[in-house]
Specification:
The protein has about 55 residues and is mainly alpha-helical. The chain has helices spanning about 10-25, 30-45. It has a domain at about 10-45. Helix content is about 55%, strand content about 0%. Pfam families: YozD (PF14162).
Length: about 55
């Protein structure tokens, strides 16, 4: 299988959730969005869909 490089930005995930939840009639707080983004990131790590890059 070929490896590709993907950058996952939790702020972008939070914005995506905000827009999608707004469409469905929910108004999440900033803290809730951050939690959802972190949970999503952790899920992707757990499923080995992404690897965390600690180089910065």
């Amino acid at each position: 299988m070929r490896e590709i490089e993907v950058f996952i930005d939790t702020e972008e995930i939070a914005e995506f959730f905000y827009q999608e939840l707004m469409k469905r009639g929910y108004i999440p707080t900033e803290e809730e969005l951050e939690d959802l983004a972190d949970i999503t990131f952790d899920y992707l790590l757990d499923k080995c869909i992404i690897d965390e890059d600690t180089e910065e």
